Amino acid sequence: MTWKGPLMVIDGPVLSNRTGHTVHVSDVDVPDAEGIRLHEIRTVSTSSDVVFGAAYDPADPGWAGTERVGPEGITIAPDVVSRLAYIVEADTAGGSYPYSLVEYRIGPLTYRATYPGANAVMPRGGPSCTPAVADRLQDARIP
User: Fold this and answer.
1) In terms of residue numbers, what domain contains 114?
2) What gap in Å lies between CA 112 and CA 84, rounded to an integer?
3) Distances, alpha carbon 33 to alpha carbons 30, 36, 72, 111, 139, in Å
4) Neighbours of 77 (CB within 10 A)
5) What's the number of domains the chain is made of?
6) How many CB atoms lie within 10 A of CB 116?
7) CA Rg value for the chain
8) Is pTM, for the whole model, over 0.90?
9) pLDDT tens digits, the chain, 143 residues: what are they?
């Protein structure tokens, strides 16, 4: 695989805590991703100025107030809505991820949720969709 920079920002799922309890997100993964490398995950407000599909620039003011999702996870307070932002690098043919897998805990109970993924992630400056990516999307199934 030949990787083509720069890093890009793609949108992940919206996490909405309507439980009335604090939720701890312990793990986020994009299993079965093809043609992309996940470098970092951040939570952003749904009213953020972060531009999805753009090159990642950590100095951009839109990233102020965002939180990195590290190995310790993140906590989402009751009645808070956040969007996950994936910082990725795509290979020269582009890529996709059919779904995101989010594991979270409310008190002693652990849950796992599956969210639909990205249709196609293209390298910046590349074609809009290659036949290889179109074939992968056609075959993608969410478990």
Assistant:
1) 3-139
2) 16
3) 6, 6, 23, 22, 13
4) 10
5) 1
6) 12
7) 16
8) no
9) 566 667 888 888 999 999 899 999 999 998 888 888 889 999 998 888 888 888 899 999 989 889 999 999 999 999 999 999 999 988 877 788 888 999 999 999 999 999 888 656 665 555 555 555 556 555 555 44
